[in-house]
Specification:
It is built from seven helices and 15 strands. It has 285 residues and is of the alpha+beta class. The protein has two domains: 146 residues, Fructose-1,6-Bisphosphatase, Chain A, domain 1 (2-Layer Sandwich), CATH 3.30.540.10; 123 residues, D-Maltodextrin-Binding Protein, domain 2. The strands form three sheets. It has an eight-stranded mixed β-sheet with strand order 4-3-5-6-7-8-9-10, sandwiched between helices. Helix 1 packs antiparallel against helix 2. The longest helix has 31 residues.
Length: 285
């Protein structure tokens, strides 16, 4: 059955409303776990190693988001960082209940909930919610809002030496190769500053709203980038996604798992002349 344009619009509005509700529900769990930190809320397990952890609050926040979604839109399939794929339906949700878990567990107030929603493969909305600062970054209907208000970003700068770059590289878990160290040195030499905040989703959200001109990541999963990419696209920003072989790809829902390197930048930033553009082309990062 083909839906009419008004029906599609109404469905997308409902999905967006549910996504926001789910993000707030997960964020409430995360905020409580952070503010009222205890051995119970911070009970930690290692996933890929000591550098990749999950807490009891991550799991509880994801349950809160999933319960909200399924109570409102039962025909949903959800990819969560902690629960993997669950459910069936035409609406797909990609959820990171706490992006920045290491910060969360260490008492550093820089983490967020990230939720992206798609219907029949088409992006519907992306939400990044910072429960500590109570900031809701949302992309829906081609619009970018922050706490419900349209974002009027201004360009921070056009060239590397005028701006900061956000990147979590080099990444924990293994000693950086000589090539990775040299690439990082190139970034330090080219940009006004290199910042490493520990939350990929918030890095992308900050570029989308114009707090930072550019960000780069290369060690992530679909749930780290799905919502943030929608935010940047809604802002009219630049999205450069590459697969493992360095080929440029479109970060659609069905291709998110193939994205291995990602640069996002403000619309007016001169990416082609950037140090990052060369490093990406050379496969140095």
């Amino acid at each position: 059955m083909t839906l009419s344009e008004p029906d599609v619009r109404a469905l997308h509005e409902m999905i967006t409303a549910v996504a926001r509700e789910a993000a707030l529900a997960a964020g409430l769990v995360a905020r409580r776990g952070f503010v009222n930190a205890s051995p119970e809320t911070l009970e930690t397990e290692q996933k890929a190693g000591f550098f990749d952890i999950v807490t009891a609050s991550d799991k509880a926040a994801e349950r809160a988001a999933c319960d909200t979604i399924w109570s409102r839109i039962p025909a949903s399939r959800i990819l969560g960082e902690e629960g993997g794929w669950q459910g069936e339906g035409d609406t797909t949700w990609i959820i990171d209940p706490i992006d920045g878990t290491s910060n969360f567990a260490s008492g550093l107030p820089f983490f967020c909930v990230s939720i992206a929603a798609y219907h029949l493969g088409e992006p519907v909305c992306g939400i990044v919610y910072d429960p500590i600062r109570e900031e809701v970054f949302m992309a829906s209907g081609g619009r970018l809002t922050l706490n419900g208000e349209p974002v009027k970003a201004f360009l921070r700068g056009r060239t590397d030496n005028e701006v900061e770059v956000l990147s979590n590289a080099p990444y924990e878990g293994e000693r950086p190769s000589r090539a990775a160290q040299e690439a990082h040195a190139d970034l330090v030499n080219a940009f006004r500053a290199v910042r490493r905040f520990g939350s990929c989703a918030l890095h992308l959200a900050y570029v989308a709203v114009g707090r930072v001109a550019i960000a780069y990541e290369s060690k992530f999963s679909a749930w780290d980038i799905a919502a943030g990419i929608q935010l940047v696209e809604a802002a009219g920003g630049q999205v450069v996604a590459q697969d493992a072989k360095g080929h440029r790809i479109e970060p659609r829902e069905d291709a998110l798992g193939s994205v291995k390197r990602l640069v996002v930048a403000q619309a007016g930033f001169d990416y082609q002349s950037s140090c990052l553009s060369k490093l990406m082309a050379d496969g140095a990062l």
